Amino acid sequence: MNTHKRNRMTLGMFNFIKGIGMIGIVMGHVQSNYVLTLPILLIILAVFSRGLMPMFFMISGIGFRNSRNFRHIKKDVRDMLVPYLITMAAVAVLFPLVHYMVFRWWPGTAEETFRIFLTFLFGCPHSGKCIGGVSLYECTPMWYLLSLFWASTLLTLFYKFLGNKKRNLAVMICVILGWFFAVTDMFWYWCVPQGMMAVGFLQIGYVIKERWWMAGKLEKKIILLVVVLAAAELFLGNFNMAHADFAWGVLDYAGAGCIGFLLILFGKRADRIGGFVFEAIRKIGRYTYWIMCFHAVETNCIPWYLWAQRFEDHPQTGFFLELFIRMALLGGCCMAADRLYRAMRKGKEMGQNVQKRIPEKGIGSVSK
Asked: What SS3 class is residue 330?
């Protein structure tokens, strides 16, 4: 029975909700340029803004292994920090080009490029921070990769050196310290406080996997408690990891985690549905990291607020048009990157096959 549950508990089953999550992230960033009035749209955006990041961290926790070691940390550097650095380089190159093409003013372009470069260099999670008198922007949405790296590294160390009781205590202390650093602005560099807070969500995801909460049925009392906390957070709270907004403190954290958990349950059930639309959303979920990197580039390089100014009288129309354009742009970038990656991989495999067919000639070999 455990084997059957283990087979059903695969990361592929979360591609649908991850795809929904990526659409929600883009929607949230598009919405920042508009004043929307549609109630149903505002509710959806509220659910996404509070529950998506906990959901993504918990899904990463489901994929976490307690047998991780320092070799896995090196893999995390390759999978998380290297894409972050590549994205930072892409923004540093494309931002001045786009900015000058739009505004035609080199001094302003140089100043803004320096600000955006410092933003990514120090991993600023939200705007309002300063370095040497220079006001920074926010490295949206790449703060997630930095936070995930710190969270997975800390949880790896906890599982390697601490027992169960000490580990749970260490996770709680880590979350509280991260919350304290984020709220007081005592230390914000490279999204370390957000990573410390994310340790709790990763641990929750790991517990979900170990206790088969996705494969079995939960007690009604637990479901009721989760729904109540999620509803309280949705209508009364204001959880935002990147901006360090916590209206209700620890209750905000718990409520956001409950929203994320309900989103995961919804994604598990919806993953069984077929059809073109659902398959397209699953494909978006499979390219989560790529979309996040491309989204960071277009968000920071393209002045979308100029587009929004044209729809001040019709914000809903401008919102949906911009959302469609940005999703199409991200889809095209992912398709092009995927083809390039497959071509490079195929060329590498062909080169290896040719290398194997050529016999090695030693010093004493005779060629005919």
From this structure: helix
